[in-house]
Write a structure and sequence with these properties.
Blueprint: H1 2-22, H2 26-29, E1 38-45, E2 50-58, E3 66-72, E4 85-86, E5 95-102, H3 103-106, E6 111-122, E7 130-131, E8 135-138, E9 144-151, E10 156-164, E11 172-178, E12 191-193, H4 200-205, E13 210-217, H5 218-221, E14 227-237, E15 245-246, E16 250-252, E17 255-258, E18 262-268, E19 273-278, E20 283-290, E21 293-301, E22 306-311, E23 317-322, E24 327-332, E25 337-342, E26 352-359, E27 362-368, E28 378-382, E29 388-390, E30 402-406, E31 409-413, E32 423-426, E33 431-434, E34 445-450, E35 457-461, E36 470-474, E37 480-484, E38 490-493, E39 499-506, E40 511-518, E41 521-531, E42 533-542, E43 549-555, E44 562-567
Antiparallel strand pairs: 1-2, 2-5, 3-6, 4-5, 6-7, 6-8, 9-10, 10-13, 11-14, 12-13, 14-15, 14-16, 17-44, 18-19, 19-20, 20-21, 22-23, 23-24, 24-25, 26-27, 27-28, 28-29, 30-31, 31-32, 32-33, 34-35, 35-36, 36-37, 38-39, 39-40, 40-41, 42-43, 43-44
């Protein structure tokens, strides 16, 4: 086929010569002696896209010269073909000239080092073709990395991303991180691919376009697990490097994963221990606060579906409501033994204990009705005699009634009551105060908390048809003092009582956070807890020294194991 092209070109030049000679007078035809033009040099500049071809042509007769420019190599192999050119190649005077080769149009996606340019000059006859030296062109489209997502706030962090490549080439990756102890310098993390079939050989060969997830073992590289300025940088190359891509910044906190669903949690400031009920495993688990981390302690086996949890003022006993039974477990932390107290049955209620709070020598606990889960009662437990009696003055309460204690009283809040009924039990006087649902702005309660000095109560409610979501501040007489316009799932007072912290979630950014409240006003100061992470309803506690918030987290998408993190309180 190439020979046919050469024959055609020779015939073309012969016809051109005959035509030119035929235009001369007979006397001139006998003395015509033409010297064909010569290309003396070819220079190719550029390695991709528009490539400049500079050449010098000489003609002894000073004739105008036309050129046939061709290339070989890359996708064309050894065959010479015409390129897509910008510039004039016809009727040129002898000298140095340039044309532009739009190589990306002819050799899209190709990278090769065997390209050559061939230029054949002619005037009335063809000169000899001139070949350039071999040169390199890279019109490969580099790979790109998109849809970078980080999932996790401690321990093993998932980093997911998508590799795109127009030509379907394999890519090698460079993965780096910065932040925390590493500061502004990027460094290589300790990680592995979630897909176990991706081994060293595969990585050396390169990854095909697709979606990938790597697991960063952050505790190895960042043992302190502290910082809100972490980010990943990913670079992909298939021989040509694509632009590096940064993830969104994310935070790391000391934390633990719970193998099961958490019912309730409390922090024992005397023993610096976090206790929680594991509903799925039927046990109470202890985690000791050591420095800035939680370390697993012992577990106490209790009964079915442990939910509510409370501790006596002397910190020696835990009381556990077992929602799957009609008994309360009592854990003696000194002897490390467990026993049960039976809840007597009442007509119309099987008396399955649910939530509990202790004030002085009295515990109040709610019960949930077996089968429907929609009604129950409040019971009073005398811790000295362990005698259980109904608490009069409260109508049937809804499931998951919240109880919170501080000093001389217990606040009782039926969580799903649309009327927002609240009750306050004064332990010493054994009296009960009711709001009667008349406190404006309360309904569908999410969380409650009481200031350490018992002078102020915060009740967080979700939005309703008649009220915006927010926090209502009450005095111990259940009289409304203030309204805080913040949509929160959990709220807790700082030990000094003036400051409080509220957990929020932004549905647009999908990021959870904890916001600082000062004297009932949002300060705008907050700490992010990560993408697709939110504090669970009533899932915020604080250490007695105010050093850490203890946040019970849930994933807002693809929920998995419950997580608990130690969160430094938001600061300016």
């Amino acid at each position: 086929m190439n020979g046919g092209r050469e024959t055609a070109k020779a015939a073309f030049f012969s016809l051109l010569l005959i035509f030119s000679a035929g235009c001369l007078r007979p006397s001139e035809q006998t003395i015509l002696l033409n010297t064909p033009p010569v290309v003396t040099s070819i220079l190719v500049e550029g390695t991709e896209g528009d490539v400049t071809i500079t050449f010098t042509v000489e003609d002894a007769d000073e004739d105008s010269v036309s050129l046939l420019i061709e290339y070989q190599g890359g996708s064309r192999g050894s065959v010479f073909v015409s390129p897509t050119l910008l510039g004039n190649t016809v009727g040129l005077p002898p000298g140095t000239h340039s044309v532009l080769w739009q190589s990306a149009r002819d050799e899209a996606g190709i990278r090769a080092a065997d390209y050559r340019i061939r230029i054949t000059p002619f005037d009335t006859e063809a000169g000899l073709p001139k070949l350039s030296e071999p040169f390199f062109l890279d019109n490969n489209t580099p790979p790109s990395v998109i849809s970078v997502a980080v999932d996790g706030v401690f321990g093993d962090i998932e980093l997911s991303f998508t590799i795109l490549d127009t030509e379907g080439d394999r890519s090698t990756l460079t993965l780096e991180y910065r932040g925390g102890a590493q500061g502004e310098n990027f460094t290589l993390p300790t990680f592995e691919y979630e897909d176990e079939t991706i081994d060293e050989e595969t990585l050396a060969e390169g990854l095909l376009p697709g979606r990938y997830t790597v697991i960063w073992h952050s505790r190895i590289d960042e043992p302190d697990q502290q910082g809100d300025d972490f980010e990943f940088r990913i670079s992909a190359s298939d021989g040509k490097a694509g632009d590096p891509v940064l993830s969104k910044k994310f935070s790391l906190f000391p934390g633990i994963s719970i193998d099961g669903s958490v019912g309730d949690l409390l922090f024992d400031d005397q023993h610096q221990t976090l206790y929680l009920t594991n509903i799925d495993r039927g046990r109470v688990e202890a985690f000791h606060l050591v420095g800035d981390h939680l370390e697993a302690g012992r577990t106490f086996e209790v009964l079915s579906l442990p939910s509510g949890l409370a501790q006596t003022p002397d910190r020696n006993r835990l009381y556990v409501c077992n929602r799957g039974s009609t008994r309360i477990s009592v854990i003696d932390l000194v002897s490390e033994t467990v026993r049960e107290i039976s809840v007597p049955e009442e007509e119309g209620d099987e008396n399955r204990p649910d939530h509990i709070a202790i004030s002085g020598n009295v515990a109040l606990f709610s019960t949930t009705f077996s089968g429907t889960g929609q009604r129950g009662t409040i019971r009073r437990l005398d811790l000295a005699t362990e005698r259980i009696t109904p608490l009069s003055g409260i109508d049937a309460v809804t499931e998951s009634t919240l109880l919170s204690s501080a000093g001389p009283f217990v606040l009782i809040a039926p969580r799903n009551d649309p009327e927002g009924n609240l009750y306050l039990y004064r332990t010493a006087e054994e009296t009960l105060i009711s709001s009667g649902g008349a406190v404006t702005g309360i309904g569908n309660i999410r969380a409650i908390t009481v200031a350490p000095d018992a002078s102020l109560l915060y009740v967080a409610n979700e939005a309703r048809a008649t009220a915006e979501a927010g926090i209502t501040g009450l005095n111990p007489n259940l009289e409304r003092l203030l309204q805080i316009p913040i949509d929160t799932f959990a709220v807790v007072f700082d030990p000094n009582g003036r400051i409080a912290y509220a957990a929020t979630f932004d549905p647009e950014s999908r990021i959870g956070a904890v916001t600082k409240l000062d004297n009932g006003r949002p300060t705008g100061i907050q700490t992010s807890i990560g993408l697709e992470r939110a504090v669970r309803e009533d899932g915020l506690r604080i250490t007695s020294d105010g050093r850490f918030l203890i946040a019970l987290l849930t994933k807002t998408r693809n929920p998995g194991k419950d997580e608990i993190i130690l969160l430094p309180p938001p600061q300016e």
